[in-house]
Amino acid sequence: MKILAVDFGDVRTGLAVCDKGEILASPHSVITTRAADKLLQRIAEVVSEESIEEIIVGNPINMNNTRGERSEKCVYFADKLRENVSVPVSMWDERTSTQMAHVLLSEADKRGKKRKEVIDAAAAAVILESYLAYRKNRK
Q1: N vs C: which end of the chain shows fewer Cβ within 10 Å?
Q2: String of b and e for 90-117 (b: at least 16 CB within 10 Å)?
Q3: What is the mean pLDDT of each run of 10 residues along the chain (139 residues)?
Q4: Contact 10, 31 (CB under 8 A)
Q5: What is d(CA 19, CA 4) in angstroms, rounded to the nearest whole number?
């Protein structure tokens, strides 16, 4: 099943997609906009273009398991996304996805402006890898 992961941000939102076999999660793109309607429209286009069957939205739960303002924004965004696509939309714990993406990009020697351009898509890929591992272990 092709799954799309979304790392929602106020300005930049990262997307990652996996293959049909749910083996490889790859960064897809970064959408740069503050306009919610444009963001939702672009994600709906990606769902159609990539034949996506499920969407995972990263939920930045605090390390002490509480949900802060950022988590609330992500839940609200996921609710709006559900209204704009015809595939299931779920939340997924993404507590350390951005930090892990920074580590991976450092290892790949991506620095400065190059890192800023791809960090959100890389974080979405980390979120998706975590979700795929969960699905694999549940089977």
Answers
A1: C
A2: eebbbeebbebbbeebeeeebeeeebee
A3: 96 96 94 96 97 96 83 96 97 70 50 59 89 86
A4: no
A5: 10
